[in-house]
Amino acid sequence: MSGEKAGEVTRLLKAIDAGGAKSSEELLPLVYDELRKLAASQMAREKPGQTLQPTALVHEAYLRLVGNHDTHWEGRGHFFGAAARAMRRVLVEQARKRGRLKRGGDLQRFPLHDVVDGKSVNDVDFVVLDEALRRMEMEDERMARVVMLRFFAGLSVEDTAEIMGASPMTVKREWSCAKAWLYDELHTD
User: Fold this and answer.
1) What is the CATH number of domain 1-103?
2) CATH code, 108-189
3) What is the C-alpha separation between 137 and 159, in angstroms, rounded?
4) What's this model's pTM, rounded to 2 decimal places?
């Protein structure tokens, strides 16, 4: 996102905080492409046969973001972090719904190293991952935020560092720790 466009996004988020309902309508076209990329990245991790489409995921997440009038945006990074979290919630709700429909949904744990290294991620169990992330958030909120931005938002190390106000080396270190922590969590029976 260009600096000018990022500045416009920040301005519109502040206007939304001030009660500018029209600003919500102006914001979507500016952030839609990035949200669509995030959603497509998320949907690529879903099992085949998913009925939710990236466009629907974007719209559902966006409605949750701008429909919550209690949220006060601290800027573009806060918004995209919240977008990643909203997409995560939608996908977890879908996974839970599928699981209920299939009496357990034949859910399986997944090898996190395969997921984060970009290999096949068709076996992602978002319910199990969500539970592990909730535990991580209680232990280390910053590390959980790195996972949200890297895994769910699909951001690069550099973009994550910019949003978090950290160095890329710090993000790489926290990302490595997060992967190891989640791997241990997901493979403990």
Assistant:
1) 1.10.1740
2) 1.10.10.10
3) 21
4) 0.54
